[in-house]
Amino acid sequence: MKARTAIVTGASRGIGRAIALQLARDGASIVLCARDCDALDHAVRDIEQAQGRAIAVSLDLRLPDAAAQVVAAALGAFGTIDILVNNAGATKRGEFQQLSDDDWTDGFALKFFGAVRLTRAAWPHLKQQSGSVINIGGVSGRTPGPQFAIGGSVNAALLSFTKALADVGVRDGVQVNAINPGPVRTARLERRLAVEAAETRTDIEEAARNFVRDARITRLGDPEDIANLVAFVVSPAGRLLQGSLIDMDGGQTKTL
């Protein structure tokens, strides 16, 4: 990864932060992008303390001009863009009748359109470097559920975008893939487990075991699981992967 530059969105916490730290450990220079300035600065300090190179770009990728700002920051700091990880975007859960137009618009604005705009802005530089794009989707893109009407729709759109862009990548020499995490122990999932624990009068670890049992999966994931897969995909060993939609979910996806 030395002499390579990676942009990672949603990098202030959870999966995005883990990806940024792993790519930095592998030697890449990292552009961390999210809205939480303090959390980004903390992640940058962690990378720098480990002798890595990183900058933070705090902005809202829902805004149309944000993508150009991220690309300009990356080029200004490190000169190239070799890897783009589109990870930003959490969508609202809830029953369909309770979801407003604004909820739907917001769900697509960050995770889908944010990824589209940033990929478009970075593409000429990725093409020049024979770079890589990874879109972090989710298992709801393949198997939607009643609480994931927005998330399933957004992730399905992101997976379709990945397939379409992968064909362009064959022509332009850019690797394009997507990873669908299952339940991963981020702060968001920990909050859900805490609610389950309170409702069932158990502790969080018991709630986690019940979650695993009910979902019929091997275990809950850790952010580092996804980060390790990203590091492999963008390495020379993973270069044959193109247009792949990789489920890393402990067996949650039961369909073909």
Descriptive tags:
alpha/beta; seven-stranded parallel sheet; Rossmann fold; globular; 256 residues
What does this protein look like?
- The chain has 256 residues and is of the alpha/beta class.
- The protein has one domain: NAD(P)-binding Rossmann-like Domain (Rossmann fold, 3-Layer(aba) Sandwich).
- 50% of the residues lie in helices and 14% in strands.
- The protein has helices at 14-25, 37-49, 66-78, 101-111, 113-129, 149-172, 187-200, 204-215, 223-233, and strands at 5-9, 29-34, 54-58, 83-86, 132-136, 175-181, 245-248.
- Strands 3-2-1-4-5-6-7 form a 7-stranded parallel sheet, sandwiched between helices.
- Helix 1 (14-25) packs across helix 9 (223-233) and helix 3 packs parallel to helix 5 (113-129).
- The longest helix has 24 residues, at 149-172.
- It starts with a strand and ends in an 8-residue tail after the last strand.
- The mean pLDDT is 96.
Specify the CATH class. Alpha Beta
CATH topology: Rossmann fold
Strand and helix order? EHEHEHEHHEHEHHHE
Number of domains: 1
Query: Rg from C-alpha positions?
Result: 18 Å
* Share in helix: 40-55%
Estimate the strand proportion: 5-15%
On the 0 to 100 scale, the average pLDDT is 96
The assigned structural class equals alpha/beta
- Order of strands, widest sheet: 3-2-1-4-5-6-7
Approximate shape: globular
Structure summary, number of beta strands: 7
Low-confidence stretches: none
Write the CATH architecture name: 3-Layer(aba) Sandwich
The major sheet is characterized as: 7 strands, parallel
